[in-house]
């Protein structure tokens, strides 16, 4: 094993929010064992490292393959969100460039009278959202409800649905869906 094992162990331990003492307790080893590995003063055997990693818990394969310097963006400024607007409303997609995205998060703005269109939306998965400002009429199948600030929705997205601003001011919504349809 390379000298980087200690650096990697410290990074993984820190990423999981564990102190050296807590990891040692969980793994059933001494605190000095963790300390000397992290200082790269010893090169642990595969069995010793596996025992330490069991305290996280993490496999040897994950330990050596986890991307500690993940180049993917985590934070996004308003101007970096991808606009998916059709002109009648604004939908800004969070994390559009992330590979293997399993979640769609939108910041939606509906002008007075703005809606998702005449055709009801049907997609796989689930959808949820919270109204931040204004009034949002949500239609899910035969059910219709007008929601205000702080009100929320959560439904099976395979049921035909649509959204419409039911007020006379802009309506702002933050929504999520899984799996992402776009």
Query: Could you tell me the radius of gyration in angstroms?
Result: 24 Å
Strand share of the residues? Answer: 25-35%
Percent range of helical residues: 10-25%
The termini sit apart by 42 Å
Low-confidence stretches: none
DSSP, total strands: 9
- Biggest pleated-sheet summary: 6 strands, antiparallel
Number of helical segments? 5
Strand ordering within the main sheet: 1-2-3-9-4-7
Secondary-structure element series? HHHHHEEEEEEEEE
Structural class label:
alpha+beta
The overall pLDDT average reads 89
Query: Looking at the structure, what is the overall shape?
Result: elongated
Keywords summarizing the entry:
182 residues; alpha+beta; six-stranded antiparallel β-sheet; three-stranded antiparallel β-sheet; 9 strands; 24% helix; 27% strand
Structure overview:
The chain has helices at residues 4-15, 20-27, 31-38, 46-54, 60-65, and strands at residues 82-83, 90-94, 104-110, 126-133, 136-140, 143-147, 152-156, 161-165, 171-178. With 182 residues, the protein is α+β, with helices and mostly antiparallel strands. The chain has a six-stranded antiparallel beta sheet, with no helix packed on it. The chain has a three-stranded antiparallel beta sheet with strand order 6-5-8, with no helix packed on it. Strand 5 (136-140) and strand 6 form a beta hairpin. The chain is elongated. Keywords: DNA-binding. InterPro entries: Cro/C1-type_HTH, Cupin_2, Lambda_DNA-bd_dom_sf, RmlC-like_jellyroll, RmlC_Cupin_sf, TransReg_Diox_bact_type. Residues 9-63 form the HTH cro/C1-type domain.
């Amino acid at each position: 094993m390379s000298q980087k094992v200690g650096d990697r162990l410290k990074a993984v331990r820190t990423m999981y929010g564990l102190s050296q003492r807590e990891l040692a307790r969980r793994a059933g080893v001494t605190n000095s064992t963790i300390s000397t590995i992290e200082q790269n003063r010893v090169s642990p055997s595969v069995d010793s490292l596996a025992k330490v990693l069991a305290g996280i818990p993490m496999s040897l394969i994950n330990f050596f393959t986890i991307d500690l310097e993940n180049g993917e963006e985590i934070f996004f400024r308003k101007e970096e969100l991808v606009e998916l607007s059709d002109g009648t409303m604004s939908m800004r997609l969070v994390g559009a460039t992330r590979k293997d995205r399993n979640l769609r998060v939108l910041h939606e703005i509906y002008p007075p009278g703005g809606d998702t269109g005449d055709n009801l939306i049907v997609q796989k998965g689930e959808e949820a959202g919270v109204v931040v400002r204004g009034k949002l009429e949500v239609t899910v199948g035969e059910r219709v409800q007008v929601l205000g600030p702080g009100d929320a929705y959560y439904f099976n997205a395979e049921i035909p649905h649509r959204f419409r601003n039911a007020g006379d001011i802009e309506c702002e919504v933050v929504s999520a869906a899984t799996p992402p349809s776009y």
